[in-house]
């Protein structure tokens, strides 16, 4: 597995390089955002460990550019900023997970393993189900009757449904895709989010519907 580490703190970058190499990963290290983006553009990495505060180009901008250029390697963001707003901003930029500094190496490798199991899920520029168009790049979902105002997690859920339209998705699949490693949501959080998404789809008269598959999960279909 080839992992790109983009970290400007030389000591931390060296520690990550040594530790991940010892764990069996092939590591490429960049110390600024511009070099990190170049490496991501030139090589298909299995995962990217990306600091937010970088010289040249921020980690958020690197992540946005990767997604705009259809580079879908899973991204684990590292940051010293731990507010909810910062986490949402990182996820909205296209990151897959978020790790607050200082962190334990064991937690980092656990999160990295989870991302590698998930793999790079290629997201096309636009996904259509019925009259609903979901744009992963702009993180917008709209019908001819308006744009649905989804929260960050609701959008991630809608994107997952749209990408796998017609397939039955289990609750554990939805949880793994939408909620990060450290989350401990309530047991009914999936049902609550699905109910909210249904209301918002109804508000823009979407013909894409999320239907319940009793005892299994949910799926998105295009209604007649």
From TrEMBL:
Single annotated GO MF: transcription cis-regulatory region binding
Domain OmpR/PhoB-type: residue ranges: 124-222
Location of the Response regulatory domain: 2-116
InterPro entries per record: CheY-like_superfamily, OmpR/PhoB-type_DNA-bd, Sig_transdc_resp-reg_receiver, WalR-like, WH-like_DNA-bd_sf
UniProt keyword list: DNA-binding, Phosphoprotein, Transcription, Transcription regulation, Two-component regulatory system
Transmembrane segments: none
Source organism per UniProt: Flexivirga oryzae
GO cellular component: cytosol; protein-DNA complex
Sites bearing 4-aspartylphosphate, chain numbering: 51
DNA bind region: 124-222
Name under which the protein is recorded: Two-component system OmpR family response regulator
Source species taxonomy: Bacteria, Bacillati, Actinomycetota, Actinomycetes, Micrococcales
BP term (GO), one: regulation of DNA-templated transcription
Pfam short name (any one): Trans_reg_C
């Amino acid at each position: 597995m080839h992992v790109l580490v983009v970290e400007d703190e030389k000591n931390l970058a060296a520690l990550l390089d040594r530790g991940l190499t010892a764990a069996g990963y092939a590591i490429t290290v960049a110390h600024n955002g511009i070099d990190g983006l170049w490496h991501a553009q030139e090589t298909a990495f299995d995962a990217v460990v990306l600091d937010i505060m970088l010289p040249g180009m921020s980690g958020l901008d690197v992540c946005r550019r990767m997604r705009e250029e259809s580079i879908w390697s899973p991204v684990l963001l590292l940051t010293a900023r731990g507010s909810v707003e910062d986490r949402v901003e990182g996820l909205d930029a296209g990151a897959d997970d978020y790790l607050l500094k200082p962190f334990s190496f064991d937690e980092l490798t656990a999160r990295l393993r989870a991302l590698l199991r998930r793999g790079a899920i290629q997201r096309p520029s636009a996904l259509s189900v019925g009259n609903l168009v979901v744009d992963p790049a702009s993180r917008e979902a709209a019908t001819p009757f308006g744009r649905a105002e989804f929260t960050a997690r609701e959008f991630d859920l809608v994107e997952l449904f749209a990408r796998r339209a017609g397939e039955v998705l289990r609750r554990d699949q939805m949880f793994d895709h939408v909620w990060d490693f450290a989350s401990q949501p309530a047991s009914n959080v999936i049902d609550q989010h699905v109910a909210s998404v249904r209301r918002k789809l109804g508000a823009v008269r979407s013909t894409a519907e999320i239907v319940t598959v009793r005892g299994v999960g949910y799926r998105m279909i295009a209604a007649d």
